[in-house]
Amino acid sequence: MADDNFDFYTADRDAVVEQIGTTRLLEIMSQMLLIRNFERRAEGAYQKGHVGGFFHSYMGQEAIQAAAVNAMGCDNWWLTTYRCHALALLLGATPNELMSELFGRANGNAKGRGGSMHFYTDRLLGGFGIVGGQVPVAVGAAFSLKYQKQKGQVAVCFLGDGAIVQGAVHEGFNLASLWDLPCVFVIENNFWGMGTAVKRAVSVNRIAETKAPGYGMKAYTFDGRDFYSCYAGFRQARDEVLETGRPVLIEAVAERYRGHSISDPGAYRNKDDLHELIGKGPLHTMRTELFNRGILDEQTYKAMDKEQRDIVVAAIKHAEESPWPDPIHLEEDVFAP
Ligand SMILES: Cc1ncc(C[n+]2csc(CCOP(=O)(O)OP(=O)(O)O)c2C)c(N)n1
After folding, report:
1. What is the per-residue pLDDT for 130?
2. pLDDT tens-digit map of 86-100
């Protein structure tokens, strides 16, 4: 890890395993394998020229959003950055519709108009390309929950470490706190904003811990490679937001494995360090715990991986065979009817 100086939230792992149960844990392992396979194969399709526009991989950060969705439940408002493939999958978008979207096809998740950065579901308000632009929208979603007296739901908003120095983020934090809104803000600190190291862009270490008090928010810092502690932490944060009606600020730390986007070879990173990190990443941590507890074995893990890979390969075939949008529809859906 680029900076070990974090005071991570710790969880009672036995309690987490017992709370989730073995069946669900294996399903979550499959979800993480689906995300990893989706990113790998979609990346390959991009390199073959089948996918256009931007493409930001979530590989290395899977445990964070897998834990968030499983701990807090789909039935919230969700918002994230352009690095949005995993969250859409976790919230129920199918690999077929997402792959078709990447391929720019008419049956894609956003009718082929959004591409990699703009995936949606009923509860996912987007994939945002403007750094920090999702934060004010999350505050609006949380405001609507409070205004309509919707109990039991929160607005969950992911942002990058690079976004924390963006003005709209602080306006959003201020309003969420001022108006007592049910927001869970999650800074995914992957140590880089494009090719700029976080230390060269953000004036403090331990971003959540240092920024949250300025808005009267409680802060948490999670080891974002560890599903189990993230799961326990997200549950606690959500319960707290529901009880107090106040926003919280979480920092989840995990390195991204790829460059900022597919066009970035990441030449500014030490390849040996990266290789070592990949060996200790979120899938490894998740799997090892299940192995050690006798919930999973190597052979079953390989079969699960193959099953998810086959789903993604089928999604690529589906996308290849899907129709292109007709230009006659270009101006539709621009304004609300
Ligand atoms: C307002 C705005 N400024 C700049 C950019 C260009 N830009 C795109 S991604 C990015 C880095 C963001 O890094 P971070 O928030 O850490 O997220 P990560 O990509 O690491 O997930 C920048 C500067 C943008 N899209 N929007």
Report:
1. 98
2. 999 999 999 999 999
189 C-alpha to ligand 1 centroid (Å): 12
Question: Which residues line ligand 1 at a C-beta cut-off of 6 Å?
Answer: 81, 83, 129-131, 160-163, 190, 192-194, 260
CA of 130 to the centre of ligand 1 (A): 7
CA 222 to centroid of ligand 1, rounded, Å: 22
Report the distance separating Cα 83 and Cα 103, nearest Å: 17
Closest residue by Cα to atom 2, ligand 1, is: 131
Query: Rounded to whole angstroms, how far apart are CA atoms 61 and 187?
Result: 12
**Which pLDDT tens digit goes with each residue over 105-134?**
999 999 999 999 999 999 999 999 999 999
Please give the distance, rounded to the nearest whole angstrom, from the Cα atom of residue 163 to the centre of ligand 1. Answer: 6
Task: Give dist(CA 63, CA 286) in Å, integer.
Answer: 8
CA dihedral 127, 259, 286, 23 (to 10 degrees): 40
3-class secondary-structure state, position 168:
helix
Residues whose CB falls within 8 Å of the CB of residue 278, separated by 6 or more in sequence, listed in order: 60, 257
Angle at 203 (CA atoms; ends 261, 157), nearest 5 degrees: 50
Residue whose C-alpha is closest to residue 146's, from 179, 124, 118, 120: 179
**What pLDDT shows up at residue 30?**
98
Q: Which atom, in ligand 1's list, is nearest to the CA of 168?
A: 1
3-state DSSP assignment of residue 80: strand
Q: Which residues of the chain have pLDDT under 50?
A: 2
| Residue to substitute in 185, 194, 200 for testing ligand 1 pocket (most ligand atoms within 8 angstroms of CB) | 194
Q: Which domains does the chain have, with CATH numbers?
A: 13-320 (3.40.50.970)
